[in-house]
Structure prediction request, 358 residues.
Amino acid sequence: MAVVHDYVTQQGGAERVVLALLGAFPGARLVTAAYAPDQSFPEFARVQVETLWTDRVPPFHRDPRTALPVLAGAFSRHVVDADVVVCSTSGWAHGIGGPAARVVYCHNPARWLYQVDDYLGGAPPLVRRAFTRATGGLRAWDRRAAQRASLYFANSTSVQGRIAAAYGIKAEFLPPPPGLDPSVPEEPVSGVGPGFLLTVSRPRGYKNTALICEAVEALPGTRLVVVGGLPERRQGWDPRLTGLVGVSDAQLAWLYRNAVALVAVGREDFGLTPVESYSFGRPAAVLRAGGYVDSAAPGVATTWIEEPTVAAVMAGIRDVLATAWDTRRIRQHAERFSLASFQARMVDAVDEVWRRTR
Prediction:
């Protein structure tokens, strides 16, 4: 039994899902294009990790995105010796080689193939069109790889639609579990006092972190903590904004517990951070789009941000700060997204596919 994931070089929601999958299948090994133990979650050190040849090329190891032209071939030629593999993918893992039956958990069809505007951010239209033409072969490979799956899961209803559009596959919707257990020991973050707004986001353009920063700057008396670091800006940011990198789970738990609310405006496939915030009894102001729609509970745990603009983010923050929230009801809402139910469905799926192949 093996779990295949694109690459394990960061601490993100997809990597937390991989840990949940490995927990569902004790003894399973992890197969991936690149593994950087110092950059991802320490729990990966407890499992057997099998890497593709790309991991031995220093530039690809440091940033697997630079390996984009060769990853399709690398996954296709890497044969996994197993009856069934579970592929956690947002681009490559479902193309793993070998005869094993495969269950695919899709975080999103490859953004650089089907959502080029999001992936390339502010690149000129000519560059985006040239990139689309140049990646036509990859799209053909990706569609063939998707058709080999025995079962396909989507992490949100919006991703369900993207899978249907890209592959013609009707995927089952299975939300991912929150990756951070609210019962973990907590560690205060030096220099940060309670009562701040929180956003947890890697520095990617589609995360729209800069919009949140600009909105908080324009709201006197508010503070913001950005886990993942502040976006680059020539004139810098107001001192009320704090960027943090290298945050441990114990520190992240403390941040969730001591925040007044989470703010999330990314164009997310699912978006785990609001669910994590709810599990700590904290509300969230989120963009009314993408996976946030699946996890939100307006009036119970959530206020909407209607569009990705500074004015709309400011309005959403004002709403979340002005509302009297019931932390018990927020936590009850978070219980809908349990680790146990996620793992049980994936175990059933693997058993079903294994019986079918036997």
User: Anything to note?
Assistant: Residues 339-357 form the longest helix (19 residues). The domain at 2-177+338-357 is CATH 3.40.50 (Rossmann fold).
